[in-house]
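Researcher: I'd like a structural prediction for the single chain below. Treat it as a standalone chain; there are no partners to consider.
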Amino acid sequence: MALFLAFAFALLFSIVGVLPPGIVNMTVANYSVKKTLFKAKKFINGAILVVFIQSVLGFYFATFLENHPQVIQNLKLVGSIVFILLTLFFLGKGIQKFTHSKEIKKKANKTKWKPFLHGIFISGLNIFPIPYYAFVSLYLSAFIEDFFTNLVGLAFVFGTTLGTFTVFMGYAFLFRKIKHKVAFFIKNINFIIAIITGLIAVFTIYNLNK
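Model: Treating it as a single chain, here is the predicted structure.
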């Protein structure tokens, strides 16, 4: 059960963390639209390799923090507050975008990098996944028994990697196959994230007294 929960929640949290448009996502989209889907996939493979390493580092950084009770005290309460704030933040951004819509401009990326190496480079510039997955690991350890074991950690890393890969591939296919809906997707992405984080906050609050 612990393996399944670790994998499922890692999958969910990785999707939530990667879904908002960012430098890696939009570079994937650019490769798909301006070049080819094959090159976009090669870029994704390079980016995913970095994400795998970052999630491993995040997990083992969390094991260090787990040995310091003062750091993870009242973890569930902190987690619920964080996700409530995230929900409000994304709702605010969604409303702001809805009332002040802007044109989405896609500029061609004329990089001379090979797609795979370019994916490693661009993904490596984003160090946010390490503390993010460390926090997620600590949060999950609050209600998943024996979370900090090698086998559960492997399930967690596999979940984060698969979730990130799924989002990147989604961007590649979305921008290439459904170009006329790209603007709508970008405009409403914050509302989608707000719903997801809101559900996580409700789940966390529900588990506070357990």
